[in-house]
Every structure is written in structure tokens, then in C-alpha cells.
Amino acid sequence: MFTGLIEDVGTVKNISQSRISIETKLDSIATGGSISVNGVCLTAVCVNEGFFTADYSPHTDKITNLSSLKNGAKVNLERALQLSSRLGGHIVSGHVDGTAKIEKIEKADRFFKITFSCPANITKYCIDKGSIAVDGISLTVSSLNTSKFDVYIIPETFENTVLKYKKTGDKVNIENDIMAKYIEKFVNNKNGGRITLDMLKENGF
């Protein structure tokens, strides 16, 4: 588990044949330990001073932006959450749901407004003012429709994540709030996929 609070911006040292090596200032990375790379939960298979190596499966390659990374690319890094840590962002599993494309980056005073386009299987789990992980960054949805959503980025987040390197057309990894998916599963199992008036009354609506 992760929080979506980025600890370091690493640099891709080498990527080929579903294996990626990343330079980082982070310590306490252990062989066999989990680390979030652009929001993707990977396992460190080799750790040396100043960098680590991880493998990723064909399925991960298919649904994330890892395969589009080149040597020298910047990536968001976060070590796995410790139970004694504060949960400053939101619960992020590192299991990416898909990708979104940056449609627009606008300056808004000291902030940045970024508009993403994505398929309906992503936006159906989004709610106004709800949490979403973009390349592993815990962010808040400011507005959305069936094919797009916006977020506002504070200067601290912009300067200390890969967002400052992004441009229009770039793809980012998206992980929806895990609670939304659990609620959908619960509703589908209980009502055969139907939201009825009786079901809403039973659950206090």
C-alpha cells in the first residue's frame, strides 16, 4: 500500500524486455520490497547504491505507461507505506486501472489546472472532490464528465513530481479510489447490478 505522496523523482537508467532500472536518492529499499513507480507497484529484484531494478509483467506493460518510458525519463517514486506512518494522501494500492492523456495544462495564478481525457471505465469511479492517483500522485478531482476530469496542482506538488516535465499529449497512469470499486462490487453482488429504491432505503438513503 502507498499514500500517493511522492518521495523522490527518479531517473530511468535502463529499460528493456520488461525490466527497468531507476536511479534514486531513496534509501531503505530492500530486495523483494515493493516500490511505486509512476503509481505502479513493482518489486525491487536488485538493489545497489543509488539505484534499483524491477521487473514488470506483460499485463502491467499493457495497461500502464511504463513501456513508453525511455532512458533518462523521470518517474515518481514512493516506498511502501509503514503502519506507523501518517496517511497524508489517500489509500493507493499501486494497481493501475488504465491510462489517461493530458489534454490541457493551464496556469492559474500560482497553481496549474490539468485536464485529462480517459475512457468511461475510469471516469465512472470518479466523483467531484474525490481522490484519484495520477502517476502515483494523490490528487483531488475538481470537475469531470464521462470522458474527462480536471485537477488543480499546488506549486509544491508541481515542483516535486514528474508533472513539471509533462506536456500535452503525454499519457499518465490512473488508479481510481479503491473504495469506489469495493462499493460497486458490494452493490452488484447484493442486487444483481441493480440500484433500486428498496436497496437505497435499506442502506440509509
Can you describe this structure?
The chain is 17% helix and 39% strand. By secondary structure, it is an alpha+beta fold. The longest helix is centred in the C-terminal third of the chain and has 14 residues, at 178-191. The radius of gyration is 18 Å and the shape is globular.
User: Could you tell me how far the N terminus lies from the C terminus, measured between alpha carbons in angstroms?
Assistant: 31 Å
How do the helices and strands follow one another from N- to C-terminus?
A: EEEEEHEEEHEEEHEHH
**DSSP strand tally:** 12
Number of discrete helical segments: 5
The secondary-structure class comes to alpha+beta
Question: Which key phrases capture this entry?
Answer:
single chain, 205 residues, six-stranded antiparallel β-barrel, 17% helix, alpha+beta, six-stranded antiparallel beta barrel
Q: What's the arrangement of secondary structure elements?
A:
Elements (H helix, E strand, L loop, with lengths): L7 E9 L2 E5 L10 E4 L2 E9 L2 E5 L2 H6 L10 E6 L18 E11 L2 E7 L2 H4 L7 E4 L2 E8 L3 E6 L1 H5 L11 E6 L1 H14 L5 H6 L3
Antiparallel strand pairs: 1-2, 1-6, 2-5, 3-4, 3-6, 4-5, 7-8, 7-12, 8-11, 9-10, 9-12, 10-11
